[in-house]
């Protein structure tokens, strides 16, 4: 059985990996230009394919039958070549988004939901939310409901972003100010890279329910695999695959006092997991063109902190890195979203009396006990997991991996 993904510019897609978990069939990427679509569908060597932008509508004229869901949404993302050679088109994004809403725990019936964007993903979200009983308003750049009259919808309980705003690499951008919606209960974002867009980070600050688009991606693939193989797949597989991808995609970020072992543990994690290890201090040196002691001596700590934030901004938006941060990165609150947007943050705790101070300007200029007293609550605020690093390094690595396995 030969399956795959049809699109124009596919870049790095997680679909082959997801389908590798779902079934025993090949899954390849088919990059085609618009003028190639008809010939590919008629003569392509495939049993079933997924379809992504910009071809979810363009393929419809070449199909023999559409499912009720595909007709409702007006788009197809799954095509199956039947035994008689005819094509059946379906849309599994509907199931994917419905599963995403269910996972979020949001009760949308009878409540106002704002859907940001008016493209294909918007149509899917609107169809699902209306089926669930929500009062749906589509917000677009122009038209009756737009970003200039959001005050008319301050009673919204749910916001769904279906636009690419906040997607890697253009992170740190939020399409709306969530403080304008006092009745808001939850925010969903179909973007999954980074794991937490600025929209979701802002929602987290407000204590709202949040969910990114990775669950939807896996759930829609699960239903597509059922159509490809003709066999049911238990919904529990969605959670299993989502957990694996989530851990794989997110950065592992190490914070802690200077000399607590971040570089050592980071290097060991990178070797064990086959990932790239990066030291934020090395990135600062690269950006500034001078050593850290030179930055402190010539420019002062505040300039160093500016360079540090620039380095963390570049590193934090990437995926699957092991990042060792400088001991004082937690002193600037602005660094937290940079690290949290796509990372799980581990605080390495080590006894102060064994911390080295050579080559560390702040450690040499201040008593470590005083420095730690100031930074301890900052580490706590930044951290997902605190890990004791007073024993063997191998034990620390094992504890970090155990915590990653607990990812929901």
Q: Can you describe what's shown?
A:
The protein is α/β, with parallel strands linked by helices. It has 3 domains: 2-90 and 218-235, Leucine Dehydrogenase, chain A, domain 1 (Rossmann fold); 95-212, NAD(P)-binding Rossmann-like Domain (Rossmann fold); 250-405, 3-Layer(aba) Sandwich (Rossmann fold), CATH 3.40.50. Helix content is 41%, strand content 17%. The protein is built from 16 helices and 16 strands. The chain has helices at 15-22, 37-43, 68-73, 93-104, 120-131, 198-205, 214-229, 236-249, 262-273, 280-288, 292-299, 301-316, 335-340, 361-365, 368-382, 393-405, and strands spanning 2-7, 26-31, 48-51, 65-66, 78-81, 87-90, 112-116, 135-139, 158-161, 186-189, 209-211, 251-255, 276-279, 321-324, 343-349, 385-388. The strands form 3 sheets. A 6-stranded mixed sheet has the order 2-1-3-5-6-4. It has a 5-stranded parallel sheet with strand order 8-7-9-10-11, sandwiched between helices. A hairpin with a 5-residue loop joins strand 5 (78-81) and strand 6. Helix 10 crosses helix 12 (301-316). The longest helix is centred in the middle third of the chain and has 16 residues, at 214-229. The chain is globular, with a radius of gyration of 24 Å. The chain starts with a strand and ends with a helix.
Key structural traits:
408 residues, alpha/beta, Rossmann fold, 6-stranded mixed β-sheet, 16 strands, 17% strand, globular
